[in-house]
Design brief:
Helices cover 71% and strands 0% of the residues. It is built from three helices and no strands. The two termini are 45 Å apart.
Length: 79
C-alpha cells in the first residue's frame, strides 16, 4: 500500500532547520497517532470488561438461552 502525504512547505522548512527529515517526522507522527488510537481502544475494552464484571457481581445478568428465546420470539426466528 502506498500513502501520499503532503507536508506544508513552511513545516518542512522548520523540520529541516531543526535537523529532522520531514518524511521521517511525518511517519513518526502517524505512528504516534496510531499508538494513541490503540491505547484508547485498549482503555475502552478494559472499561467494557470492568462494567461487565460489575454487572455480573451485582446480578444484572440473564441466561443466554432466555435472551435468545426472546429474540427468536420477537423476530419470529424458528428454532
Amino acid at each position: 500500500m502506498q500513502v501520499t502525504l503532503t507536508i506544508p512547505d513552511e513545516l518542512a522548512a522548520e523540520l529541516i532547520a531543526a535537523g529532522k527529515d520531514p518524511a521521517s517526522a511525518a511517519l513518526e507522527a502517524l505512528t504516534d497517532h496510531q499508538r494513541l488510537h490503540n491505547m484508547i481502544d485498549d482503555a475502552e475494552t478494559r472499561e467494557g470488561i470492568r462494567r461487565g464484571l460489575e454487572d455480573v457481581a451485582a446480578g444484572r445478568t440473564r441466561p443466554a438461552r432466555e435472551v435468545f428465546d426472546e429474540l427468536r420470539a420477537k423476530y419470529r426466528i424458528p428454532r
